[in-house]
Amino acid sequence: MKALYPGSFDPITNGHLDVLKRARKVFDQLTVAVVENPRKAPLFSAAERRRLVEESLREVGIEDVPVITYSGLLIDCAKRLGVVAIVRGLRATSDFDYEFQMALMNRDLDADIETVFFMTAGEYSFLSSSIVKEVKRYGGDVSKFVPRCVERALEEKFKEG
Ligand code: PNS
User: Fold this and answer.
1) Whether 159 is catalytic
2) Is the dihedral of CA 124, 13, 79, 35 positive or negative?
């Protein structure tokens, strides 16, 4: 069974990797899909976000998960790839309303593709790309929460100003 793990990944965090590892145990084939135009203006370009996902996967020794970018509707990307499921991570209850809305809309657009949720490990339940960027922007230590390549990329980005 093939599944798609979509997101903004601006940037990828250890919380995303945790969800990805769980989904990989359940699905035979998993593809990460980086949305080109996320809802919020991204810090990293789509190409940078994709490269950081690829490098992070290499860091944790995962070699069988391809990374693509997409624009337009997520469900159209899922259909093109012929997946049976869209994977999303759930942290706290605060994620639920948006995820529920999106899952039901995606089901309306294509009833054959299921959205499947994985709970993150407790230690990542408060973690988000936004909070990582905020902490790093002001010089805080995020090494526990992101792969090394992401930490370096954030340093470079904030040095650029
Ligand atoms: O990591 P995010 O920002 O929570 O990811 C949300 C994402 C990228 C999966 C979603 O915003 C997306 O795919 N956008 C493309 C447009 C779309 O299909 N929106 C959902 C309609 S139900």
Assistant:
1) no
2) positive
Strand 85-90 with 29-35, pairing: unpaired
**Domain assignment of residue 23, given as a range:** 2-160
pLDDT of 93 higher than 90: no
Catalytic site residue 71? Answer: no
Q: pTM higher than 0.90 for the full model?
A: yes
Can you tell me the mean pLDDT for 149-158?
97
Number of structural domains found in the chain: 1
Tokens 């805080």, residue? Answer: 140
Which residues lie closer than 8 Å to 23 by C-beta, 6 or more apart? 3, 5, 30, 87, 116, 118
Atom of ligand 1 nearest to the CA of 106: 22
CATH of the domain at 129: 3.40.50.620
